[in-house]
Design goal:
This is Cation transporter. The chain has 109 residues and is of the alpha+beta class. The chain has a single domain (2-106), classed as Gyrase A, domain 2 (2-Layer Sandwich). The chain is built from five helices and four strands. It has a four-stranded antiparallel sheet with strand order 1-2-4-3, with helices on one face.
């Protein structure tokens, strides 16, 4: 699981949040992602998303250049999603730690 999550986190610099309400976030691809996708497989992204118990559903849409993720806002606080996709490495680390701790404590692992 960790290998998939770390690969997707490397991709986070190539996406931005286009819309976010508690429980649902839409990420849009930035232009440089096409070159990056050659080193990533869509299966890796899907496995990473599936490995997070608090992610209820996701959709990759190549036509719109977006990823829609539905998550449990009780398990993952919406502010953590914003931090997870920020450009600040410290914020990302805090978000990852908070999400992992919450998932581990909830027994959903």
């Amino acid at each position: 699981m960790e290998q998939y999550v770390s690969r997707v986190l490397k991709l986070r610099r190539w996406v931005k949040i286009s819309h976010h309400i508690p429980g649902r976030v839409r990420l849009k691809y930035k232009l440089g992602i096409v070159a990056q996708l050659s080193t990533f497989k869509s299966q890796d992204i899907e496995k990473a998303l599936q490995s997070v118990p608090a992610f209820k559903n996701y959709q990759l849409n190549a036509k719109t250049g977006s990823i829609l993720i539905e998550y449990d806002p009780v398990t993952i606080e919406p502010d953590w999603i914003d931090l997870l996709f920020s450009v600040n490495e410290d914020d990302v680390e805090v978000a990852c730690r908070n999400i992992a701790e919450r998932i581990n404590n909830s027994g959903d692992c």
